């Protein structure tokens, strides 16, 4: 009987050990699956940020390229006014009056501005292009750094899975390290590999530790591993995630550089439009003087040409300012809305630098109840009496029924009574009597 009982006890112990080993293996593979899923999520987030960055850079570069092409065209037109050979008549061939002499000065100024404004537009466009390229390199470098972090397995999590301290190495790494170091030694000095590719002797074969001490340390290691998993589950929710501060700084840097582009681009456009206006006014003054000097008997020739072209230029100026003031408010609203959406998505609603805090939200909130009496009536209505027209109780147990005012009741009846409090004194009197 004693031998049979010992055999049964030994069999049960072996079964328990097998179950414990199977549980540890399942937990290990579950942790590895969780790590793989977490890495996939992080890589997806980085890919999304990279695609967004690529789209923004593509749009910005295309707009800068178009602006540079137009500025180059306007610069070539300005060079044409200087080197093409069409100039006002010389003073020795034509007697200019005082007004015409002033128009000659205006012509010289406009001819110079027709070269200056397109050149300034090109310089600003090139500067914005350099800024965009630096922004792209900077952000792509940060994304590459985060991608490398995402692809690397957290050593601390790996040690927790293996049940070892964070400063020690896993068995597989130890075996690979010893195998690599032993392969560099001569053949005669290489140590012989132990059975089952273990880096340490079996538990029962250890000479410096007794069997009981080894069992105690094994149990202690298992408990420590379970406590470490418990701690990682409840107190380290963000282990392995991308640091929120780093992503927030990355996004804020991107937005800041994009805003810098939005600051340079309108100035470049303004210079381009000023260059176009200067070219038009150069044509107006130049050909007006040319027609007046060469066709003196037809004064309406230069008057018609200069008047039509000058009126068109003046109308374009008014149209430009009208469009700017008309769309300025809308542009500011759209830009502010997009920046707020990105900032709230990355950093959350409660940010210290945004001015939105829980205190301001509660200060601007509208109260649901007007007085303390309404609050007490709603509380009694929700937790103090059973449903009308029904003898059944909504309590889960007799203990909850005994502690009626503090019970957490089921169903939607309490919620409905909370949303529709008593509005008459008679109703409130009935509620008080019911309690």
UniProtKB/TrEMBL annotation:
Keywords, alphabetical: Membrane, Transmembrane, Transmembrane helix
Region Disordered: start-end pairs: 162-196
Provenance organism: Cladocopium goreaui
Sequence ranges of Basic residues compositional bias: 187-196
Protein name: Uncharacterized protein
Ranges annotated as spanning the membrane: 59-83, 103-127, 270-291, 303-323
């Amino acid at each position: 009987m004693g031998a049979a009982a010992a055999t049964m006890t030994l069999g049960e112990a072996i079964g328990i050990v097998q179950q414990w080993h199977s549980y540890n293996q399942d937990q290990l593979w579950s942790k590895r699956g969780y790590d793989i899923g977490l890495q996939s999520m992080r890589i997806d987030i980085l890919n999304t940020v990279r695609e967004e960055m690529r789209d923004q850079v593509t749009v910005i570069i295309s707009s800068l390229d178009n602006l540079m092409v137009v500025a180059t065209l306007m610069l070539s037109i300005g060079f044409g006014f200087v080197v093409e050979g069409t100039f006002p008549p010389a003073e020795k061939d034509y007697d200019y009056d005082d007004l015409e002499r002033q128009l000659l000065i205006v012509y010289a100024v406009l001819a110079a501005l027709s070269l200056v404004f397109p050149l300034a537009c090109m310089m600003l466009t090139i500067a914005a292009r350099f800024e965009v390229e630096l922004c792209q390199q900077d952000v792509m470098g940060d994304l590459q750094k985060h991608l490398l972090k995402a692809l690397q397995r957290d050593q601390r999590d790996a040690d927790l899975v293996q049940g070892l301290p964070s400063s020690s190495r896993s068995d597989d790494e130890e075996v690979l390290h010893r195998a690599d170091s032993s392969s560099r030694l001569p053949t005669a000095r290489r140590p012989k590999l132990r059975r089952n590719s273990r880096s340490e002797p079996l538990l029962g074969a250890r000479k410096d530790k007794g069997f009981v001490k080894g069992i105690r340390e094994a149990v202690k290691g298992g408990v420590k591993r379970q406590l470490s998993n418990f701690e990682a589950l409840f107190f380290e929710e963000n282990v392995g995630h991308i640091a929120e501060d780093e992503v927030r700084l990355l996004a804020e840097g991107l937005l800041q550089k994009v805003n810098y582009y939005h600051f340079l681009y309108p100035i470049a456009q303004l210079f381009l439009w000023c260059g176009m206006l200067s070219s038009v006014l150069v044509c107006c003054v130049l050909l007006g003087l040319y027609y007046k000097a060469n066709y003196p008997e037809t004064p309406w020739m230069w008057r018609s040409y200069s008047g039509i072209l000058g009126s068109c230029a003046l109308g374009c100026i008014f149209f430009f300012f009208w469009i700017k003031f008309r769309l300025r408010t809308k542009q500011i609203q759209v830009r502010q809305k997009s920046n707020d959406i990105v900032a709230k998505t990355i950093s959350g609603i409660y940010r210290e630098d945004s001015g939105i805090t829980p205190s301001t939200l509660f200060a601007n909130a509208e109260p649901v109840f007007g007085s303390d009496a309404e609050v007490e009536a709603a509380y009694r209505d929700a937790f103090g009496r059973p449903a009308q027209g029904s003898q059944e109780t909504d309590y889960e147990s007799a203990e909850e029924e005994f502690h009626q005012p503090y019970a957490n009741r089921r169903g939607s009846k309490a919620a409905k009574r909370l949303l529709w409090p008593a509005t008459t004194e008679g109703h409130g009197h009935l509620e008080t009597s019911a309690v």
